[in-house]
Write the structure tokens for this entry.
Amino acid sequence: MNVRPLVEDDAPKVAALISAEEKRLYGRPGRVTGADILMYLQYSKESWVWEDDGRMAASASYGVHGDAVNFRGIVADKGRGLGAEIVERGEAFARAEGVKKILAGAPEPDAAARELFESRGYREVRRFYEMAIELTEEPPEPVLPDGLVVDELREDEYRAFYDALNEAFAEHWEWHPDPFEEWIERRSGQHRDEHGPVWFVVRDGDELAAVTRNDASVAGGGYVGAIGVRPAWRGQGLAKALLYRTFGEFWRRGTTRVTLDVDSQNATGAVAVYEGVGMRVDSCGVAFEKSSE
């Protein structure tokens, strides 16, 4: 077995492994692409592949977020101990980084992954839903209280957008925002593409009351990467308005599938909001935690 760092050309193969696993666990074709893998790898510090005679047998990525190491792996060749190797590498990575805890994720139906994590002292701490909608007709126009308007983000508003999003997510589980300089380096220019705007805001005069950051193509459809309403403006339907504006933009582009990821225990009632606009849970992931001390 050859273990080596993951390179850009490996991304489609990793996507194929994940898609095959989704089909095994959920009974439907996977939708992850090589481009999605490359996007996710921006948040990793190390990524590895396991090869057997040139064929990819497993892959894993490791990163640091706040006071925790996060890692996620995928194994094609079951029963060879590769899952245990991925976990051991993650724990060694955590010791080297000097963090307090380790967070690992797995699909909820993956009983073998749960058994592996629990055998090594991990415990379930959170569940996350991927929610999806298949648009069959043009979405309704956003409706807001008087004085509030839905608009696209302007070029000179990145800092205000960043501040609004961090305020909205301040109490979110494991929220550790990147410094603005790092965030803007990654996000600059992404608020629109050649087809039009993809980031939207709710304006209350000069204030950004709510914001959403969307991606035009993730997992074969549109993706709501982040949506947040600042506390002073909650309870007025702002998230719903931003979702309808987002759906409308994707509908205009001919993109009918839209997804997002949400903490199942979100304190702001986000799951109910998303269900209220027609989204449904498509899959569930489990976060496991272990102290690294």
